[in-house]
């Protein structure tokens, strides 16, 4: 029953923690990477939470058992042999004292262990994702050596953790055996002096070890539990990360997006990316923001989407600060297409439906026509049911981009914020896409960021950004 309860309670804790981690990531949204790396999230959410099982499932219940057992045994044994019972009871706290002695050292060691573990995970994930680049530059052998060295450092710290655990278990065993021996020795002396009978000595000898076993068991769980506790520091660092409060105000779909005196510096960056920028995107307009690479164009769109919070100046949609707008409302108002179209390992249809779950096949087709990708999809043997592979691997860069654009069209938001939507397209496809954007936007407001001159020709308002300022 005890094992069952332990298991059920730890399962409950694990479920709850994973749920909290998941919700935190959703709340952090695209900014989660400024708090924690992707592989660290995976490691703490999977292995880290699993490690906590010993803490909740074994250590905590054993803690109460270890506290109660010696006291109960003492209460019984004192009727048989008071001096031996007293000696045994006095020796028991030596085990937690031994645990406490190694704790500071163990804590530091386990901190290092988890640091190396997550950093190895980071490197592995990064190298795997960049394998093509490594192969192209024949840098894979070099990276492999680097990873081997990192893995070796991790192996060494793992061995140190195991050594620490073994040493401390040995110390606890010594305390337990010496304590039991001391109690036995007192009982035998008492027997020789005629203070207890043979039955009393035998009883003392038999229960002497049981004074220590629960505490000794607690000690071994403690070391495994400490590993989980070190992981929990990482978990709580993520869970404690500040999440900007969600806005609550509904926003009418009528006014412009206006930025006034907008300045923005990325966390940890040396200088500001945007400086004192004023820009207005009136409803129904086709506005283009052009500028050199790195001038801050994408950052502007991210602030409009509230992926980051505005600290200097203001960004308002229909007269309401974006930070005050209800986030779901904001997402309904603003469709957004990033520079890298993320396609899921699913069919083309399902990838498009993400933008609008109740979209009909006709609506999907219309969005694809507007993005000049329908003919391509229709020509595939499985048409819209064609699987796109991992990250859309089976498609070309331009095809992926046009599907991303179709998805943004399908979203049917009054504002369309597009970040370099035609950067991977040939001039013919680009001209078609820009034409459908200009002519077929059906009252929608388009804000397009690009460094291509072709976009300037179709837009009715063009802003130029240079080094974070309007020029
Ligand atoms: N998450 C980030 N943390 C720190 N700095 C960042 C971050 N994202 C972008 N930057 C920096 O902000 C500056 C502007 O980046 P941004 O992506 O807005 O430029 P851009 O004009 O869209 O460039 P491109 O045309 O090449 O896409 C760059 O110098 C970049 O290094």
Automatic annotation (TrEMBL):
Its main location: membrane. PROSITE patterns: ABC_TM1F, ABC_TRANSPORTER_1, ABC_TRANSPORTER_2. It comes from the Bacteria. Pfam families: ABC_membrane, ABC_tran. It is a multi-pass membrane protein. It is found in: Cell membrane. One of its GO terms (cellular component) is plasma membrane. SUPFAM superfamilies: ABC transporter transmembrane region, P-loop containing nucleoside triphosphate hydrolases. InterPro entries: AAA+_ATPase, ABC1_TM_dom, ABC1_TM_sf, ABC_transporter-like_ATP-bd, ABC_transporter-like_CS, P-loop_NTPase, Type_1_exporter. Residues 1-227 form the ABC transmembrane type-1 domain. The chain crosses the membrane at residues 56-77, 84-106, 169-188, 195-213. Residues 257-471 form the ABC transporter domain. Keywords: ATP-binding, Cell membrane, Membrane, Nucleotide-binding, Signal, Transmembrane, Transmembrane helix, Transport. This is ABC transporter ATP-binding protein. It comes from Granulimonas faecalis.
């Amino acid at each position: 029953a005890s094992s069952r309860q332990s298991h059920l309670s730890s399962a409950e804790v694990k479920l709850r923690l994973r749920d909290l981690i998941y919700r935190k990531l959703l709340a952090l949204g695209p900014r989660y990477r400024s708090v924690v790396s992707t592989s660290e999230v995976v490691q703490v959410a999977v292995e880290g939470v699993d490690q906590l099982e010993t803490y909740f499932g074994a250590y905590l219940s054993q803690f109460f058992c270890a506290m109660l057992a010696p006291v109960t045994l003492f209460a019984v044994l004192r009727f048989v042999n008071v001096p031996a019972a007293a000696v045994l009871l006095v020796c028991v706290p030596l085990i937690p004292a031994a645990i406490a002695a190694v704790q500071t050292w163990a804590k530091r060691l386990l901190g290092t262990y988890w640091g190396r573990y997550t950093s190895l995970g980071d490197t592995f994930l990064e190298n795997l994702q960049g394998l093509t680049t490594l192969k192209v530059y024949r840098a894979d052998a070099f990276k492999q050596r680097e990873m081997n060295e990192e893995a070796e450092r991790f192996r060494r710290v793992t061995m140190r953790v195991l050594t620490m655990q073994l040493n401390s278990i040995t110390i606890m065993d010594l305390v337990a055996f010496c304590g039991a021996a001391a109690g036995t020795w007192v009982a035998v002396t008492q027997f020789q002096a005629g203070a207890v009978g043979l039955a009393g000595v035998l009883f003392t000898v038999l229960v002497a070890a049981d004074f220590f076993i629960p505490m000794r068991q607690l000690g071994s769980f403690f070391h495994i539990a400490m590993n989980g506790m070190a992981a929990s520091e990482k978990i709580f660092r993520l869970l404690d990360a500040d999440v900007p409060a969600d806005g609550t105000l509904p926003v009418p779909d009528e006014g412009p997006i206006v930025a006034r005196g907008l300045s923005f510096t990325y966390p940890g960056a040396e200088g500001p990316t945007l400086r004192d920028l004023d820009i207005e995107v009136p409803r129904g307009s086709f506005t283009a923001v052009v500028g050199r690479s790195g001038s801050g164009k994408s950052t502007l769109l991210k602030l409009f989407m509230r992926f980051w919070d505005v600290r200097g100046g203001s960004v308002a949609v229909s007269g309401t600060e974006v930070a005050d707008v209800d986030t779901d409302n904001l997402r309904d108002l603003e469709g957004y297409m990033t520079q890298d179209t993320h396609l899921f390992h699913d069919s083309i249809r399902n990838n498009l439906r993400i933008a609008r779950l109740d979209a009909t096949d006709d609506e999907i087709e219309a969005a694809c026509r507007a993005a000049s990708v329908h003919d391509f999809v229709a020509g595939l043997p499985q048409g819209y049911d064609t699987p796109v592979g991992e990250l859309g691997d089976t498609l070309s860069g331009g095809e992926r981009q046009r599907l991303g654009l179709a998805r943004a069209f399908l979203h049917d938001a009054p504002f369309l914020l597009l970040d370099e939507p035609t950067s991977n397209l040939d001039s013919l496809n680009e001209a078609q896409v820009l034409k459908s954007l200009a002519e077929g936007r059906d009252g929608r407001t388009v804000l397009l960021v690009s460094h291509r001159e072709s976009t300037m020709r179709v837009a009715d308002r063009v802003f130029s950004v240079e080094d974070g300022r309007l020029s």
